[in-house]
TrEMBL record:
Organism listed in the record: Microbacterium marinilacus
Record-given protein name: RNA polymerase-binding protein RbpA
Pfam families the UniProt entry points to: RbpA
Function recorded in the entry: Binds to RNA polymerase (RNAP), stimulating transcription from principal, but not alternative sigma factor promoters.
Keywords for the protein's UniProt record, in alphabetical order: Transcription, Transcription regulation
Family classification: Belongs to the RNA polymerase-binding protein RbpA family.
Length: 117
């Protein structure tokens, strides 16, 4: 009796329990194209019987990382990257003490009004 490897007797190495029909590859599908803001196209496949409302208008584009829409003429805009700000730039944008005190007073007045109602 010849025995080799770890394969179970009567099986082929690499063969799986299911064929294509069990994976759903035989189902009718429709291809939907999406374009991102840079003009890149990606194609997604959906079941042919899926209602139009359930097919998304915007998806994530895997290559550019940008959203992609179904309308080739009007794709979503490219994301705007803000320049890097240093800590000092944020410190300069902080409110003055008078503005902060005024905001705090307004917030406290609103809370007092809600509690009074």
């Amino acid at each position: 009796m010849a025995v080799g490897g770890n394969a179970i007797r009567g099986t082929r190495v690499g063969s799986g329990p299911m064929g294509e029909q069990d994976h759903g590859h035989h189902a009718d599908r429709i291809a939907v194209s999406y374009w991102d803001g840079l003009g890149n196209e990606t194609v997604r496949y959906y079941a042919a019987g899926l209602p139009e409302e359930e097919i998304p208008d915007i998806v994530d584009h895997p290559h550019s990382g940008l959203p992609a829409g179904r309308d080739k003429e009007n794709p979503p805009e490219v994301a705007k990257n803000e320049p890097y700000k240093t800590h000092l730039a944020y410190v300069k944008e902080r409110r003055t003490d008078d503005e902060a005190e005024q905001l705090l007073d307004e917030a406290l007045d609103k809370l007092r009004e809600k509690r009074g109602q």
